[in-house]
Amino acid sequence: MTRKQRAIIAALALAVVCELSVLGGLVVWDSSQQTAAVVQVPQAPPELPAETPTPTATLPPTATPPEPAPTSTRVFSREEINEPTLARIADEVIAWRELQPLAEVDFQFLTLAELKERFAQYYAEEYTPEDIEKMRQAYVTLGLLDEDFDLATALVDMQAESIAGFYTPDEKRLYIISEYELVETEQKITFAHEYTHALQDQHFGLARLIDVEGNSDRALAARSLAEGDATLLMAVYAYENVTQAEWDWLAYQASRLEEEKVKAAPQALGKVSLFPYTYGTQFVLGLFFQGGWAAVNQANSYPPQSTEQVMHLDKYIGKDEPQSVELPDLASILGEGWEQLDRDVMGELVTMLYLGEQLDEGQAAKAAEGWDGDAYAILRNSQGQRLLVVRSVWDSAAEAQEFSAAFSDYVTKKYGGTLTPSAEKAARKWYDAPTVSVLSSRHGQETLIVVAPDRGSAEKVLAQFSGF
Question: CATH 3.40.1000.70: does it fit domain 330-462?
């Protein structure tokens, strides 16, 4: 085993600690210049008055000294002050990652207040309040958020407070968040992470990699390749450069972050946010030991297609791609007053988290493991009632049955009742209560679940799916 391989193995153990204390990432938006902090440094000492000879026999008259010359100053930005240090870090990243820069990488420092301002501006430009409310209700329906969670505020505050740096493919610039003039350990580690993103962008095109429309699971998987790569390099840099005293301080910061920020966020949403850094790093490490950085580079030409492939490297290597699943236009079927809030793909990760809202982590993970594709839709009527439809395909009929059994347990724990087989089909089961009607049906390797406000709405949806 080479020194580089030993260092990377050791660094993996540090990667999660690094990410909890230094949550860097790549963000795509347009930005404007920020005001740089400055310090004033004299360029030359002031001129002193010349001495005047005096007679020895008499006392000299009292002389008025001339006015001192004004001090000449030069304004240095934080970027200029820290450039030599950051240039050395960049050289280390280049050597470890084995990618030469194709252009100079611009960087800028932001304060936390400036970062929050940018986030607020970004979300105001990209989303209307109605968009965010639809997003919130979709997440609530999937069990990722509590009913009263303030998503609009969280999108700005929680993300801004947990990000230590980011890189923007549009600007080709990386940003470091700091309140101080000189970079400290946290900013150095962050720079290593974000500089890796800059190299990725120059060689592979990050915007192309993460620009995935209509499939959040695939977008999260592609992001995991980029973030896993940068997190691994960040951890290698830290392993090679951070002292024990600095590690103790970072560990303290990480413990406070977990208590104050990670725990403040809904657990499932936090797991989705951290997925590219945790599972992504393991995925990239697996590729590295398959074929070094060449294998990681090659993955940018064929990025992971699902969170399943990120969680199970053998699925990626074997090119076990998810199946495409279609859903009909359910809003028109349900009738007047219904609108679609969201239509997307859950993937293995969110399927696991959805079940994990009620089941223990092991059972939820095992039930989601056989995932092979899905599509879901969330709809809302004029009374504010929501309806969820999820059609999934599994690796085998046995895997589909295992998911159905786990979902049955989910229903029992969530609603306090039991799914009952229908007279028409044993694999079709219902649970009805005054405010909810739940359908779970299985057909070969496919499953269908419907969670509706009433039986009539659920039956309208069921009628659109042959075989269930």
Answer: yes
